[in-house]
Amino acid sequence: PEAVRGRVIGNIMSGLTIGILITRPIASLGAEAFGWRGVYGMATAATAAIAFTLYWALPQRHPANGVSYGKIIASLWYLLMSERVLRQRAALQALCMGTFGLFWTAIALRLAAEPFDLSSKGIAAFTLAGAAGAIISPIAGRAGDRGLTRPATLVAHLSILTGLTLAGVAGAGWFGFDPVTHPTLALAGLIIAAVLLDLGVFADQTLGRRAVNMLCPEARGRLNGLYTGLFFIGSAVGSGLVGVAWSHSGWTGVCVAGITFGAVAFFLALINSNQRF
């Protein structure tokens, strides 16, 4: 039902976030035990197991509209061009996922360097900070159900900006802080930064999914597919920028790039006047 759609989506997003949370430390531990190639072997085996399970467990569904798969795929461009809310929310989440990709791709490099010098097990433990995303998703969904999508979106973006600024302070010594002198405090700061970042990213994603699911009931699957595909482009871009940012400016470059993504997202949400947003 429309009145509780945000809550339902939030609950689903919690499961998604828990999956991400579990795979991070598993990947770190797997890399330590089997090397980086072993991680991809583990991912392949897990994906194959899930595919076989879904093949046997999912019920058969035969839509009554009779439209061919080719025509459905061809309609994606029309949906993207005709649904303004989809474009807006996909752009915001792509920017948020850009910050997510930047931070979580580069954080292992920062934690393995001085003054932290964490092992793969230590980095795996650090990634448990991602649990924040599982907590915020149902809350964000309920906020959307209460008509608070726009203010909740702005708060989510401010959380991202605050987290990345704190990451710069704790990891790069912004504003006079010295992480070498206070390594424990710096590590705590990075943990809090990761929590704030994940809170903001997954809150925005939950609010975006709710908004997209309110658009066109007969095309809900396609709309969700477009939304997800587009925001993962942002994640890929963010991850891809890590090499450039790190090689030129280290952790400072990573944080500045992330803040830029987050600031653009906040500005776009701030100037948006669409009531369905």
Brief rundown of the structure:
The chain is mainly alpha-helical and 277 residues long.
Structural category: mainly alpha
**Biggest beta-sheet profile:** none
The number of E-state strands comes to: 0
* Domain unit count: 1
Count the DSSP helices.
Answer: 8
Strand content: under 5%
- Radius of gyration, taken over Cα atoms and rounded to an integer in Å: 20 Å
In helices, the fraction of residues equals over 70%
Q: Let me know the CATH homologous superfamily.
A: MFS general substrate transporter like domains
CATH topology: Growth Hormone, Chain: A
Q: What is the CA–CA distance across the termini?
A: 19 Å
| Mean pLDDT rating | 89
Order of helices and strands: HHHHHHHH
Could you name the ranges where pLDDT drops below 50 across 5 or more consecutive residues? none
CATH class descriptor = Mainly Alpha
Please tell me what the overall shape is: globular
What would you say the CATH architecture is? Up-down Bundle
